[in-house]
């Protein structure tokens, strides 16, 4: 299975995994699954950190490597897919994650109930 972590799920996975459901933790840890982190996620983390809304792990890059999480670039098909999404959710970072999960046929692990309203495979994280 190909998994895409939303920003909150990534942060909890790295800093406080017990906040995630047992199913989400097990799915992320399953060695057969490929776990991706969109490049939109560190971008969102940087913006929220600059605004004082978030204190991310200082060694984010190192932790991503240690966990063998793969970075997912943002490509033109992803941007086109964002344009076709219904306006059920206004967060541009979440909309990009939804589009990436749709285009690349991934399961998006999320804490956000609004995301689950889109036609995309999701796994609730809590």
Structural class: alpha/beta
The 3D shape can be described as globular
Task: Note the total helix count.
Answer: 6
The CATH architecture can be given as 3-Layer(aba) Sandwich
**How far apart lie the N and C ends?**
19 Å
**In what order do the strands lie side by side in the largest sheet?**
3-2-1-4-5
CATH topology: Rossmann fold
CATH class group? Alpha Beta
Q: Unreliable runs, pLDDT <50, ≥5 residues? A: none
**Mean of pLDDT:** 96
| Largest beta-sheet characterization | 5 strands, parallel
What report would you give on this structure?
This protein has 126 residues and is an alpha/beta fold. It has helices at residues 7-15, 22-29, 40-50, 60-67, 76-84, 92-103; strands spanning 2-5, 34-38, 70-72, 107-110, 122-124. The radius of gyration is 14 Å and the shape is globular. Strands 3-2-1-4-5 form a five-stranded parallel beta sheet. It has a single domain (2-124), classed as Rossmann fold. The longest helix has 12 residues, at 92-103.
